[in-house]
Design a protein that fits this description.
Blueprint (H helix, E strand, L loop, with lengths): L1 E5 L2 E8 L3 E3 L12 E7 L3 E6 L2 E5 L4 E5 L5 E6 L2 E8 L7 H7 L9 H16 L5 H26 L6 H12 L8 H7 L4 H10 L4 H17 L9 H7 L5 H12 L3 H17 L1 H4 L6 E3 L1
Antiparallel strand pairs: 1-2, 2-9, 2-10, 3-8, 4-7, 4-9, 5-6, 5-8
Helix pairs in contact: 1-3, 2-3, 5-6
Length: 293
């Protein structure tokens, strides 16, 4: 059974229907949305391949993959799972970080994974009794928990991020995006290293500290613009929460990064959300090798 959680999110309780399933060739048109699945395996075991990466998933484990990009799945033991489906752009994470998290086995021992697993199981159990507005709220909480879980996965898979100082710096940036005084100098001073060493650490991860701060602020702002919880917030208020001193500076940076102004992007997301709500059956057509319960 599939539950509509609003804003393009669905939760499906599914069972394996065949031993092997090959996903379709890329279905993402130029400029189109990527639809992503996070699967929590309740029973059984499977092997998932995407981007030439193999994930072996047992009961209690999780795995994420882009649904409308090429993938394959083989069930070594039939079973059941919960599939959280969502537009990839709803994750407030860098595209490269999301790519690194695809087709990675997420073990139940990870603290945030335990929280996510427990929440999805409980949501599946009580969803039938929740109102539409409560389901929307529950979907947003599930996405927040998934984001927390994926950040732990990215830190484990990014070789540069194995440096404890860099991990702490990146976490500090994400936790303090609202701070308008967050600069490379304050970041270095906060972690008792030089500005030069800070640049060296981020260079090992393929970025600059200033670029990372700006990217995280823009990603957080984009997530807020598409989040129904902030529909009454003005563009200026969202810019301020993201640490931008001037709305015009925010609009220019947003347009350079995402190809449209914040206002145009927000209206486009609202229209797509309404279309998804009207066409919820279309959202859940591909079954990814699972049959609905």
């Amino acid at each position: 059974m599939t539950r509509d959680l609003g804003a393009g999110l669905t939760l499906t309780h599914a069972s394996s229907g065949q031993l092997r399933y090959n996903g379709p060739p890329s279905l993402v048109p130029p400029g189109g949305d990527v639809v992503t699945n996070f699967c929590l395996h309740l029973h059984g075991a499977t092997e998932l391949v995407q981007r030439d990466r193999l994930a072996e998933v047992d009961a209690g484990h999780g795995v994420m993959y882009d649904h409308n990009r090429p993938w394959s799945m083989r069930f070594t033991r039939p079973g059941q799972g919960l599939i959280l489906r969502f537009p990839r752009e709803r994750l407030p994470l860098d595209r490269g970080d999301v790519d690194r998290a695809l087709a990675r086995t997420i073990a139940p021992g990870l603290g945030t994974m335990r929280m996510l697993s427990g929440y999805l199981r409980e949501l599946d159990a009580v969803a039938a009794g929740l109102s539409e507005s409560r389901l929307r709220e529950a979907g947003l909480v599930a996405l927040d928990l998934l984001t927390m879980t994926l950040r732990g996965v990215v830190d484990d898979t990014d070789s540069a991020a194995t440096d404890a100082t860099l991990r702490m710096m990146r976490r500090y940036v994400r936790d303090n995006l609202h701070d308008r005084d967050l600069t490379v100098a304050t970041l270095a001073r906060r972690h008792l290293v030089s500005v030069r060493h800070t640049h060296t650490l981020f260079a090992g991860a393929g970025s600059t500290p200033g670029g990372y701060i700006r990217e995280q602020r823009l990603l957080a702002a984009r997530a807020m613009l598409s989040d129904p919880r902030y529909r009454d917030a003005t563009i200026a208020e969202i810019a301020a929460v993201g640490g931008f001193l001037e709305p015009r500076t925010f609009e220019r940076a947003f347009r350079r990064r995402f190809g449209s102004t914040p206002g145009v992007w927000r209206r486009g997301r609202a229209q797509k959300t309404s279309v998804r709500g009207a066409e919820s059956a279309l959202v859940s057509i591909p079954r990814a090798g699972w049959n609905q319960r």
